[in-house]
UniProtKB/TrEMBL annotation:
Residues 69-157 form the D-isomer specific 2-hydroxyacid dehydrogenase catalytic domain. It comes from Cannabis sativa. Belongs to the D-isomer specific 2-hydroxyacid dehydrogenase family. GO terms for cellular component: chloroplast; mitochondrion. It comes from the Eukaryota. PANTHER family: FORMATE DEHYDROGENASE 1. Residues 161-309 form the D-isomer specific 2-hydroxyacid dehydrogenase NAD-binding domain. The keyword Protein transport does not apply. It holds the Pfam family 2-Hacid_dh_C. This is Formate dehydrogenase. GO terms for molecular function: formate dehydrogenase (NAD+) activity; NAD binding; oxidoreductase activity, acting on the CH-OH group of donors, NAD or NADP as acceptor. Keywords: NAD, Oxidoreductase. InterPro entries: D-isomer_2_OHA_DH_cat_dom, D-isomer_DH_CS, D-isomer_DH_CS1, D-isomer_DH_NAD-bd, NAD(P)-bd_dom_sf.
Length: 321
């Protein structure tokens, strides 16, 4: 259902005439039948037939094909996005709108932008546009948009699940069941209650706030680091404490959750030095972007036991490192 909400949000953004979406509307309504729109999504194959609301795949095409074509636009959907002979490259010279998703992104590089002479709009059906060379896009006068808030609930719930997986040492236990083993001590020695643990989120925007709200019933100690403090009423309701200094917050945390975008400033932010500031045995959940954490530093810290568990997004793991 998360991608269904993305599709609905995208539809509203594309069709709205409100000032906030005027640039999108202008691109699509300048002249009927004049826009070539290319969507790049992963193929779902037989899974696409199992759920009519599964629209974030190539087969579902975000659920906006009928609407776009009724407006006279040409809508081409593919999953083939890499290499000089890929389907996307066949259309790069004359497409005007490119729609993609964070989980199967079409990388909009400076070189691609240079060849996309007619490109006006790059739309991410989701959150995060780090697959776009924003400097090159700005220089070319492109509009880069995303569907802010479309999957905040999904991500916050997924983070809570990952925290419980780590704290309860669930994955090794699952492997034991699959393999027909029964070694209680091998699981229990690192299985804990979440109650009483200190959880700190680095970033307390839409997702960070929702995560903190969902953690409150577990009776955790809740900390957050952000550029801005949340509203006093909400902070009191959640019971979270603002930590202005990230380096001071990290040693207090049993669990660190990363909830910030990938930018030039945050790329590789959690390096060897930053990780060393965390307490030994810290658990990490990174549902943001993998490149925020230095891969080798994480590997070394996991090997030494300084990081006891790490569940991070590996989406675009090669490209975004």
């Amino acid at each position: 259902m998360a991608m269904k909400r993305v599709a609905v949000s995208a539809f509203q953004a594309l069709s709205s005439s409100s000032p906030s979406s005027s640039s999108l509307t202008r691109h699509l309504h300048a002249s009927a039948g004049s826009k070539k729109i290319v969507g790049v999504f992963y193929k779902a194959n037989d899974y696409a037939k199992l759920n009519p609301n599964f629209v974030g795949c190539a087969e579902g095409a975000l659920g906006i094909r009928d609407w776009l074509e009724s407006q006279g636009h040409q809508y081409i959907v593919t999953d083939d996005k890499e290499g000089p002979g890929c389907e996307l490259e066949k259309h790069i010279h004359d497409l005007e709108v490119l729609i993609t998703t964070p989980f199967h992104p079409a990388y909009v590089t400076a070189e691609r932008i240079k060849r996309a002479k007619n490109l006006k709009l790059v739309l991410t059906a989701g959150i995060g546009s780090d697959h776009v060379d924003l400097n090159a896009a700005a220089a070319a006068g492109l509009t880069v948009a995303e569907v802010t808030g479309s999957n905040t609930v999904s991500v916050a719930e997924d983070e809570l699940m990952r925290i419980l997986i780590l704290v309860r040492n669930f994955i090794p236990g699952h492997h034991q069941v699959i393999n027909g083993d029964w070694n209680v001590a091998g699981i229990a020695y690192r299985a804990y209650d979440l109650e009483g643990k200190t959880v700190g989120t680095v970033g307390a925007g839409r997702i960070g706030k929702l995560l903190l709200q969902r953690l409150k019933p577990f009776n955790c100690n809740l900390l957050y680091h952000d550029r801005l403090k949340m509203e006093p009423e909400l902070e009191k309701e959640i019971g979270a404490k603002f930590e202005e200094d990230l380096d001071a917050m990290l040693p207090k945390c049993d669990i660190v959750v990363i909830n910030m975008p990938l930018t030039d400033k945050t790329r590789g932010m959690f390096d060897k030095e930053k990780i060393a500031k965390c307490k030994k045995g810290v658990l990490f959940v990174n549902n943001a972007r993998g490149a925020i954490m230095d891969t080798q530093a994480v590997v070394d810290a996991c090997s030494s036991g300084h990081i006891a568990g790490n569940l991070a997004t590996h989406q675009n793991s090669i490209k975004d490192q």
